[in-house]
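Morning - adenosine-5'-triphosphate inputs below, output right after.
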Amino acid sequence: MLGLQNMASSSSDSSSGSSSASQGFSSTYEFMEQPLSPIDSFNQRSEHNKTLDKGVGTGGGPLLSWENLTYSVKVREKKKMHMRTILHGISGEIYPGEVVGLLGPSGAGKTTLLNVLAGRIEGGVLNGKVLFRGKKRVPGVFRRKVAYVEQEDVMFPMLTVEETIMFAARLRLSNKQYSQLQKVERVASVIQQLRLSHVKSSPIGDNLNRGVSGGEKKRVSIGVGMVTDPDMLVLDEPTSGLDSNSAEMVVELVRDITRSRGIASVMTVHQPNSNMLRCFDRLLLVSQGHLVYFGSAEAAIQYFESKGFPCPLRQNPADFFIDVMSLNNRSPEELEESRRRIAFLAQSFGEAMHPTAKLSLSYGGMYEKMPASPQDPGTGILTHGTLSGSALEWGMTADETPPERINWFYELQTLIYRDILTTVRHLSFASAVGINSISVLLLLGLLFYKIGNEVTSIQNRIGLFFSLTMNSTYGIMSHYLYVYFKSKDIMLSERGSGSYRMSTFYISKLVVYLPIAVLSSWVYFIGIYFMAGLQPGAAKVFTSLMLFTVLLVVTMGVTLMVGSFISTYDLASVVCAMIVTTWVIFGGHLANAGELLAVISWMQYISPAFYAYEGMVATEFNGLKLHCQANNGLCMARGEDVVKLYKLDQFTVGQCAVIVFGMAVAYNVLAYMSLRWKAKPKYLWV
Ligand SMILES: Nc1ncnc2c1ncn2[C@@H]1O[C@H](COP(=O)(O)OP(=O)(O)OP(=O)(O)O)[C@@H](O)[C@H]1O
Ligand SMILES: [Mg+2]
């Protein structure tokens, strides 16, 4: 088989004196007048994987085939909405053991095509056909058979490499099929294969905390996908941001894994060097949403040359292909010229592909390999296949039952363990919670220290409960909104690959966050209670503490509900602040609860802070004896009179407790449902 350099050099020899890619192509072709050269190399698989047909049971057919994929989105241009087509009738297929490199200029539609192939496209209109093992994809099955490695590495920065891959194994590998030991062994083998053994105990890290390198992080992302033993790997720009050595290593590893495991991989890479190019069995070139070429890299050079675009000597073929396929914005003439060039290439390839290599998916997408054609120059380029009528045979063996889900309790246990680890290791969060508790304890404890039983203590008592109510709501919202958003991207990505149920995710968040919120709040609540010298009876302390605690649970539910509805942290924190401000305004402290305008008075009844505050104030004042001083014009000797004066007797303490408890349940159910609804992947399937 000829190497890429040889191909490049032979092609350039034959065209010495022609313009280089970067110098423009205007004189090298005649639009639509050049006869099509009889290249039938596209749709060919490289020699090595001709024999590869293991592991995924395709019986010789492609693992994934796609036909005439067209994708459009609604866009606004010049104040008018119209449909913009991003993919124009793209067809192709990928076989087990094969690595397909998806190349094209920026904005060509590479990520869009990858998303369509991986079943991860949302919004817009998708037409065409995608078959997995010759059959229509079953979302639940397909999602778990494809590992999608996104461009951004979405992982918990505080977990180690080994923990990250181990959690993926624990969450996605069924307990019935894999024992704990087998999972550990699998993780170890993935770590070894990805050459991550030396950093397995290092944290992933982020901008603030140094962790593993960019290349290692990318390999961990691949490991997370690999550990579930997928049939196909889809990678979007796995080399972006990496130096050339790390980038080469990633691409080579993907090739090795693809071959050793007999899976199929498709990846986009910006500017692959010739070593990386050699790792691709076939190139899929797209420009402006059109398929420009699909076949081996070697044949690509020949093909482009046959169309009047010879690859100059010593130019990296990948750079050359991208140059030829790019729009040139330097001048209107050059732009027009490049548009015509791309249209020519797209049309040429479409016409060349049509009569001979078109996939007929109605036959199940099967290709029967033909012996090399007489035109085949013996370069190792295979001839294209033809359709076989008995193709459905291999598709029949496909396993369409979704991989078994892991046990609900085991899933919950795993998520709780992961949430505990990430929360405890999240130092800024832990310190924020700790500092908040101690500072509130000291500030309020000293401010209201020994408030006594004078009539003047009425204001202090009321102010104390107001401060406690405010802190429990503002504090909880700001802390937990932040930690929730930190894990939201990971959750969305994991939900996209069907990792776990929303019920376990939600319960795990409550199980881990609530005790931290509750215990840290109890520290200052109880401390302040006794520093201030409020009524000491156990029943009173317990009642106020319970009302305060249930208010925390309501706040947590509302925080998660806002977080699920609103996609950005900035907006969600503004909305949370508005909600808490409303609660506080209508909480019964700032304005007398019985004196509000009818038009807004209803708002106090939807404020959980109102019930918690009213309940706590009533608990404290009921039975309280106040000392009336001589010559004091106004004297309320009984705490009950104070409650009446402030109109905080609209509900009994018991009613307040029941209403706040009901709100806690209702808000959490609503938060769970909205999270479930919003985080449900709404992917388009064809
Ligand atoms: N949902 C969408 N709404 C509007 N335009 C979109 C949408 N998705 C993609 N596009 C547009 O479609 C084109 C192709 O996008 P895509 O992200 O697939 O390009 P790409 O080849 O991956 O580019 P890059 O190399 O820069 O990552 C771009 O012009 C992009 O702006
Ligand atoms: Mg992209």
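Note: Residues 31 and 341 are 8 Å apart (CA to CA).

O.
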